[in-house]
Write a structure and sequence with these properties.
It is built from 18 helices and 11 strands. By secondary structure, it is α/β, with parallel strands linked by helices. The chain has 2 domains: 3-40 and 69-112 and 243-445, 3-Layer(aba) Sandwich (Rossmann fold); 115-239, Rossmann fold, CATH 3.40.50. The strands form 2 sheets. A 7-stranded mixed β-sheet has the order 1-10-9-8-11-3-2, with helices on both faces. It has a 4-stranded parallel β-sheet with strand order 6-5-4-7, with helices on both faces. Residues 114-116, 168, 275-282, 337-338, 340, 382, 384-385, 422-423 line the site of pyridoxal-5'-phosphate.
Length: 449
């Protein structure tokens, strides 16, 4: 088939037409399988190595970022029950919300306040270790806090790092990269918030701004890095290291669930809702959770109605061979962290047999939930981070979401809904107030407040 025929066939699909009209959709993935993680043993080994590497770096992290000292230099976030939010959702829908509602607070991750503090920081640390070991300056059994010494920052300053970002990845890589001594250049898409650019410039990071969206910022970064043998490009669309950094979250969450005495099984299914941009962050987490919990974890990705790149890639089977612009969408959304038009070529195919489904949420929904979560739990997230909560609402409270539960005969009384919050603690207060005002006015318009 020619590209044109493929496009025509796709546009004849009711789901794609709804997506093209930027409507909210809920899609159950028919490609999910019972044995979804190929090369599982290999992944487990690599994820364990990533965990080990982060443990080696813990003394360095604790010493370079004192806010992580209490956690012994591990970059981790709390997992909390959000009962008030659950009551709020029950009240506003006049409908019960069976099971427990939990929030994984990656908005509170130290150093850069978003899920990117997992993958982004991990990849930079791995690079630093590789370079220093190769130069004979470091060995695996050293106390890595020596990396704060001037001889190391001087050594790393000979190297540079480039990355393309909608904001948060740049923030993570810029902060850790600059701290270690690297020269970092962040290629920022037009969506990136001004405060993120300013914060990076304050830290001595070079920020290059583009009028275009994320894909172009990445492409430019990749091209510039290619011309410089001392420049390392962090490739959000393909990097296995980034992916592994995110995947470390799996065993950490398991530990937290264990501590809450939650052991997912047939009578206590675990539902996980993750905001998705290019797919690496939620993809790494999803793969790790699938390795741990198998059929008892049900994972959904949420995207903005204007940027449903993962859903489009999975539905069409074309993965990074199609963009949301190809179906006429503009990729414009207030959820800047998710403003991605084309999915990761690594994460898309990996997610195909794993995901239970994808859904979209429009900006109004995200802002409304932002306001409600602030009111109910005094928890302030950036708009992107609410795409998880939107999924829990859809699965529990909509016909389309319920279909997934009914078809599988799932027992929901003891279900655990784990909503992944992906960013927000670094958003300036005035900006957060503005988000909240927008959310409040959306709710008023819908007569829900
Ligand atoms: C980047 C980001 C995501 C999604 O991660 P991807 O790897 O792009 O899919 C979700 N939420 C926030 C706040 C982000 O910054």
């Amino acid at each position: 088939m020619s590209d044109r025929d493929i496009h025509k066939a796709l546009m004849a699909e009711p789901l794609v037409r709804q997506m093209a009209e930027a409507r909210e959709v809920f899609w159950i993935n028919p490609h999910k399988t019972d044995d979804p993680v190929k090369h599982g043993a290999e992944w487990k080994k690599e994820i364990a190595e990533a965990e080990e590497r982060l443990r080696r770096f813990a003394p360095y992290i604790a010493s370079a970022f004192p806010e992580t000292e209490a956690e012994g230099g591990l970059i981790e976030s709390p997992l909390v029950l959000i009962n008030e939010m659950k009551k709020h959702l029950e009240h506003s829908a006049a409908q019960a919300f069976p099971g427990r509602l939990l929030l994984k607070c990656d908005d509170e991750l130290p150093i850069s306040g978003s899920i990117k503090a997992r993958g982004g920081i991990y990849e930079v640390l791995k690079l630093a270790e590789d370079l220093a070991v190769k130069a004979g300056m470091l060995s695996a059994d050293d106390d890595y806090s020596i990396l704060t010494e001037e001889r190391f920052t001087a050594f790393f300053s000979k190297y540079s790092i480039a990355v393309g970002s909608t904001g948060n990845l740049g923030l993570s890589i810029g902060i850790i990269g600059a701290k270690l001594g690297f020269c970092v250049t962040v290629h920022m898409s037009s969506d990136a918030k001004q405060w993120k650019k300013e914060l990076l410039r304050e830290k001595g990071v070079r920020v290059i701004e583009y009028e275009a969206d994320y894909s172009l910022a990445v492409k430019e970064g990749r091209m510039q890095a290619k011309q410089d043998p001392y420049c390392y490009f962090i490739d959000d669309e393909h990097s296995r290291d980034l992916f592994l950094g995110y995947a470390v979250a799996g065993s950490r969450v398991k530990k937290q669930l264990d501590q809450m005495n939650i052991k997912p099984d047939a009578d206590e299914p675990l539902f996980v809702y993750l905001p998705c941009g290019v797919g690496g962050g939620p993809g790494g987490v999803a793969l790790a959770l699938k390795l741990i919990y198998g059929e008892h974890v049900h994972i959904f990705f949420g995207e903005p109605t204007h940027s449903p790149c993962m859903l489009l890639g999975l539905f069409s089977g074309l993965h990074d061979g199609i963009s949301v612009q190809d179906i006429g969408l503009d990729n414009q959304t207030a959820a800047d962290g998710l403003a991605v038009g084309r999915p990761s070529g690594l994460a898309g195919p990996l997610m195909e047999p794993i995901l239970s489904g994808c859904y979209t949420a429009d900006d109004g929904t995200l802002f409304s939930l932002l306001y409600q979560l602030r009111a109910a739990e005094n928890k302030s997230l950036e708009p992107s981070a609410l795409a998880g909560l939107a999924g829990a609402v859809k699965v529990v409270q909509t016909e389309a979401g319920n279909r997934y539960i009914k078809e599988r005969g799932l027992e929901m009384e003891n279900a655990v809904h784990l909503v992944w919050s992906t960013g927000g603690s670094m958003v300036p207060e005035e900006e957060m107030e503005e988000y909240s005002r927008i959310g409040s006015s959306f709710l008023k318009k819908m007569g829900r407040q």
